[in-house]
Amino acid sequence: MTVCYFTASGNCLYAARRIGGTLLSIPQLMRQETIEITDDAVGIVAPVYAVEMPMMVREFMAKAHIQTDYFFFIYTYGMGYGEAFAHVKLAAEDAGLHLSYINAIQMVDNYLPIFKMQEQINTLPRKNVEGQIEKVCQDIRERKTVDVPVTEETRRQMAEYKESLAVPILRKETALEYIVNDDCILCGICAKVCPANNITVTDKVEFSNHCEVCYACLHNCPKNAIHLKKEASEVRFRNEHVTVADIIRAND
Q: Given phi > 0 = left and psi -120 to 50 = alpha, else beta, which region is 215?
C-alpha cells in the first residue's frame, strides 16, 4: 500500500503514519517531472481547505499516473467538509481513477482567521481522534468501498462554495500579506516547512506568490513571529505526535 500525503501542521502526516504502508510526500512528488505510482492500494491523505482539497493536491491528482485496484482518499478537517467528497470523486474521474473509498477525520481546525487555536485544541478529547483513525484503518484493511453520488444539487452547492469560500480563501498571493515581526531570528524554518517553496530567508523573510494557504510557516515558526493581519488568536498548533523536523522532512 502507498499513501501520499500533504501536511502543514502535522495532522495528515500523523493520520498517514497510522494508516501505514509506503508514505510519500505530495510536495516532494510534485517536484518530479513524472509521477508513477503502482500498488495494490493507493491513497491520499489531505486536509479540507475551503470545503475542498488543497490546490497542490488537486494538481497532484491531475499529474500523477496511479495504477491501483483500490484508490482511497482521507480528509482531515475541523469544522466541516461540505461537498469535499464530491470534489475528490470528480478529480479522480478526470484522472482516470475509480474512487473506492473516502472518509474524513475530525481533528483541529487550524484556519487562523476564524478559529482560536487553544479552543480548538481543547476540543480534541471529545472528538475521539484515535477512534476515528482506527475506523478508517479498519475500513482500508477490509477494502471497504463507499459510493459518492454527484447530483445536480451537489454541483450547485460546489459552485456556491467555490464562489463564497474557495475563490476568496485559496489565493496564491495570500502570503504576501503576512506580517513578520521583530521576534524573527531568521532561522529559515518557515522556508523549510513551506510545501510550495514560497519563502526565501536572507537578511529578511520574503514571500512569493505561489502560496498554498496551508499556514505551515505560521504554525511552525519557533518564535511565533509570522502573523496574519487579522487572526483569531496568536496561539499556534502542531499535532502532538509530529515534530518540526518531521514537517521539514516532508516539505523541504
A: left
Cell of 139: 475500513
User: pLDDT (tens digit, 9 = 90+) per residue, 230-249?
Assistant: 999 999 999 999 999 999 99
User: Residue 124: CB partners within 8 Å, gap ≥ 6?
Assistant: 107, 108
C-alpha–C-alpha distance, residues 93 and 110, integer Å? 30
pTM here is 0.95
| Inter-residue contact 77 to 106 (CB < 8 Å) | yes
Cell of 38: 503502482
Residue 179 neighbours by CB under 8 Å, 6+ apart: 226, 227, 228, 229
If you search the block for the grid coordinates 500525503, which residue do you land on? 5
* pLDDT, tens digit, 9 for 90 and up, residues 61-70: 999 999 999 9
In tens, the pLDDT along 114-153 reads 999 999 999 999 999 999 999 999 999 999 999 999 999 9
